[in-house]
Amino acid sequence: MSGYDVAVVGAGPAGSATARWLARAGQRVVLLERSRFDAPRVGESLAPATNGLLRELGVWQDFTALAPVPSHGTRSVWGGPVPASNSHLVNPYGCGWHVDRLAFDRMLASAAVSAGVELRLGVACRRVERDDAGWSLSTGGGRLRARILVDATGRAASIGRRLGGRRIVFDRLVAIAAMFEGDADGYVLVETVPDGWWYSAPTPPGHALAMLMTDGDLCRPAVAPDRWQALLAGAPVTAARLAATRPQWGPRVFPAPSQRLHRVACDAPWLAVGDAALAVDPISGSGVVRALRTSRAAAEAVLAMLDGTEPSALAAYEAERDRECTTYLHERALYYGAERRWDAAPFWRRRTSVLPSRPLLVG
């Protein structure tokens, strides 16, 4: 049975970055990923703040080798019919980037391997058991042991929930996405409609991604291509942008709710990172930034647990995620509150307060 200091489950940005930080600190780390990086993933627009985080992680050259497309900023049709622009030209961090998300995730996983991480692809974690030495994990490839366990399984938070964590979900948001062949300009575009808002952006190489962000209980008819196209016509600025493109795939539905994984107690050596710990609304534009930032915080907490120098490290990490969640929910309410044209529509009415009257799901 293989033994490690840390097992990280999930090789998205948060998991791979956490694994790399830990390996660079001299820990024996295994990174488990149930896919083989062979399924399509929705494209990603990276905020300028990502630049410094990638440099800190030591992967800037690997990142630029992906030939990402510069993102010049954001145009938004939000709160009124006239598009407003927020240019990255004056951003102190530089420009943002449009990336092929699958290639980006592969790059970060490879960077973890180059730091000494053992990467196992196509491996599902079937059972997790705690013992005196830490954790015993059963996978399709056998059993392994680790002193510390990191849940980086995204919104599913599949490891943390098995270990007693409760997923608190604040909304029903989903993305109904489609990919198009053909270039779009270098801006992210968001445009509100009564049932939600549209996101569109270029995705290398030579594609454009468009997504209707709406609530799951409002979207069922929109999954049909004809209905999706009809809804797109109701977003004239977005429709005009895509007029010269050709559909490649979609529409497909991806869950995108805001949620927090809550722990009743910090008495077991595991933690969650990235979307598994706190998943945010894509309107924040901060998903990857948060993943990379929390990966370092998670690694520092894990190192403190391993050497026993800071018994309260795990509790401090969880308290910081709670503060981050509170701040995020207030910022989300302010942003959605700037759009008042659709106040009577269910999607917008649900977002008039910081919190719903009660969480939509706890479990």
Automatic annotation (TrEMBL):
Boundaries of every FAD-binding domain copy: 4-323
GO molecular function, a single term: FAD binding
Pfam families cross-referenced by the UniProt entry: FAD_binding_3 (PF01494)
Similarity-based family: Belongs to the flavin-dependent halogenase family. Bacterial tryptophan halogenase subfamily.
Protein name per UniProt: FAD-binding domain-containing protein
